[in-house]
Amino acid sequence: MVRPRPPAVRFVWAQMGFDASHSGFNPFERTIGPGTAARLRVRFRIPLPAVADGAPAYLSEAAGARDLLFATTKAGHLVAVDAGTGDVLWTRQPASGPRYTTSSPAIDPAGVWVYSYGLDGFVHRYRPGDGAEDAENGWPELATRKPEVEKGSSALAIATDRSARTFLYAANGGYPGDQGDYQGHVTAIDLATGAQKVFNAACSALAIHFDASGSASTDCAHVQSAMWARAGAVYSAATDRVYVATGNGDYDGAENWGDSVLALAPDAGALLDSYTPVEFQHLQDADADLGSSDVALFRPSSGEDLAVEVGKDGVIRVLRPSDLSGAGGPGHTGGEIQELGAPGGREVLTLVASAPDAAGGEPWIFVANDAGVAGYQWDSGAGGLALRWSVAPGGTSPALAGGLLFVARSGLLRALDPATGGTVWSDATIGAIHWQSPIMAKGNVYIEDEAGFLTAYSIDGD
Fold first, then answer.
1. Of 256, 301, 379, 411, which is most buried with the most CB atoms under 10 A?
2. What are phi and psi of 391, to 5 degrees?
């Protein structure tokens, strides 16, 4: 039996990773914590119309007194679910093909619209309460002209820049197998005007959505670059820049940006800086995409803003987001200030979480992969990250709330102590896991799985 919920408090888990920097850290959780985690029980477990391979978004007070969850399925549905009861309120599927998506939805700061990537290559937006679609003012917005070869792999992202402009970011890459005429790119959409700009990881001088015509004016001869990491685009308030990471593809430091971290203006209209490892050709030859994850931002007590990027080569690289290569602009190689290993030295295909230390010490970075989950803390004396703990088994993108680190793998959802990696709580209700990751909202934990279910946990299941 589901008991009545207390009066709603406005809360939004707006996008994968919680915030515009995709930190994976919800600082507002007050119900779930080390003292209550042992009482987490299944609140509901409901089937979705298809598998959702990402993370849901959450909006409180979206429909009267209701709190709502939104899930994007691989088949292109956007599903609105009552976050308390599990009732499906509405479903929209603008197209049933081609192919599939592993994207996740996003909610704008005012809670007026919820956005979802459609299999037709467009980003669609809907009213949260009733699912009515906006089909005016340029919506739906184009994200790719080649949805049959350019995959919407990453979650949609939303950020508001220093000029109070709010942008939605849709990143595209390719499907598994690295085949076809695709080019990784990010589309930035101004939510106030509907105007959009495109930055391409290949042939970047052309700020357009490429077609497959073979024409030099509308297509690009450099193929199979990609932007496919879980969060897509990461915004830093400290630098007022948006960071995207690329997978394989040609690199020349001029118009082709394979295996690089790119710093863009918030509207994606200008490339401001870049980081490319010296060994970029080895990464390309080994299919060891640098951009299999996104930059994770953190700030030590020194006040210097830093970031980490970790890829399929299992190397964690510490960077300065204000000067990625240390050379004052794009087109240079090297410049990382530290390198260390991911768990087991294995590839990382997940979001990296970052959070302040609960005891007031230096900040933490949390990395999960198939080999394990690890916590790295900034060591001010050594001037670098230090591995504090590593535990098995591994998992997908970790997330923090209530002083706990939640991480999922197939058949197992755990809450870990962020300072030690010790297991505080676990449950084996969920099905297989690919890229699905948990969110924590107002005393609840929610997660999708490969069995096509959405599972909710709460204290005592109430």
1. 256
2. -130, 155
Neighbours of 389 (CB within 10 A): 17
Within 10 Å of residue 427's Cβ, how many Cβ atoms? 17
CATH architecture under which domain 12-459 falls: 8 Propeller (2.140)
CA–CA separation, 133 and 136 (whole Å): 9
How is residue 57 written in tokens? 């978004």
Strand segments (E) across 93-206:
106-107, 114-117, 122-126, 141-142, 150-151, 157-160, 166-174, 185-190, 196-200
- The tens digit of pLDDT for each residue in 67-107 reads 999 999 999 999 999 999 999 999 999 999 999 999 999 99
Are 203 and 255 contacting, i.e. CB atoms less than 8 angstroms apart? yes
Residue whose structure tokens are 């997908």: 396
pLDDT at 6 over 50: no
Token pair in block for residue 453: 């279910």
C-beta of residue 418 within 8 angstroms of C-beta of residue 362: no
Q: Find out whether 60 and 462 touch, Cβ atoms under 8 Å.
A: no
Residues whose CB falls within 8 Å of the CB of residue 246, separated by 6 or more in sequence, listed in order: 184, 201, 225, 226, 227, 257, 258, 259, 260, 261, 262, 289, 290, 291
> Do the beta carbons of residue 286 and residue 302 sit within 8 Å?
no
Taking the C-alpha atoms of residue 360 and residue 254, their distance in angstroms, rounded to an integer, is: 43
Nearest-angstrom CA–CA distance, 219 and 209 = 8
Structure pTM?
Answer: 0.96
Tokens representing 96 are 């049933």
CA–CA separation, 261 and 245 (whole Å): 4
CA distance 345 to 312: 9
